[in-house]
Amino acid sequence: MPLSHPRRSALSEQVIAALRQQITSGEWPVGSRIPTEPELVEQLGVARNTVREAVRALAHNGLLDIRQGSGTYVVATSELAGVMHRRFAGADPGHIAELRSALESAAARLAAERRTEKDLKQLDALLLRREEAWESGDTEAFVTADATFHLAVVAASHNDVLTAMYADLGEVLRDWLRGDVGETLTPETYMDHTRLVDAVRAGDAVTAGAQAAEYPLVCRPGRFSSPARG
């Protein structure tokens, strides 16, 4: 439905809000290319300059990346996520691994204590999707499936602040995982998460926390120092 046409500044805000909604709702997931400028003009019923202004504003805020000759892509789901991605894009991968380990360990402990039957069904389904993505050999599909699974573990903690913080770090953590698994999926980089889910299901907070803490720190030899595989 075309947007209404109030004064220019208010209209621009409406367009920005409409585009942001497409991103935050998951309609345009991270990594996807958004519709072209002419398509957005037709969909929203506004002038080309208004669409261009809104896209540039969201690019400035870190949600979109305008790539000349290729299109505009979603790179974050919120302004804070965009800031996180820019801030930590060049961080030491070992430090990212340690951060992920700390957050996921704390969340897994809470998940073991607070998870619901709905959470467990979600974890089972996402664990299966992760396995299927691995078997497909599609690296990007596996990265997405793995990230979605870990976010579900964090969400099962039922700590909204922890979940929001982890989600805002999502693209930083996906970048780390892409670097860790490499361009081709190999047995050396595979980690089975069944024991993590089993511990959460059993309400075993200690084991759940230990399992979640271990995964990010077990990485391909030579990338950075980490504990030995246990």
Question: What helical percentage do the residues reach?
Answer: 55-70%
Low-confidence stretches: 219-230
CATH level-3 fold name of the largest domain: Four Helix Bundle (Hemerythrin (Met), subunit A)
Rg estimate, integer Å:
20 Å
The overall average pLDDT, rounded, is 85
- Assign an overall shape: elongated
Summarize the structure in short:
This protein has 230 residues and is mainly alpha-helical. It has helices spanning 8-24, 37-44, 48-60, 79-88, 93-114, 117-136, 139-155, 160-168, 170-181, 194-202, 205-217, and strands spanning 64-67, 71-74.
What does this structure look like?
The protein is mainly α and 230 residues long. The protein has two domains: 8-75, Orthogonal Bundle (Arc Repressor Mutant, subunit A); 81-217, Four Helix Bundle (Hemerythrin (Met), subunit A). The chain is built from eleven helices and two strands; from the N terminus they run H-H-H-E-E-H-H-H-H-H-H-H-H. It has a two-stranded antiparallel sheet with strand order 1-2. Strand 1 (64-67) and strand 2 form a beta hairpin. The N and C termini lie far apart (56 Å). Mean pLDDT is 85; it is low at 219-230.
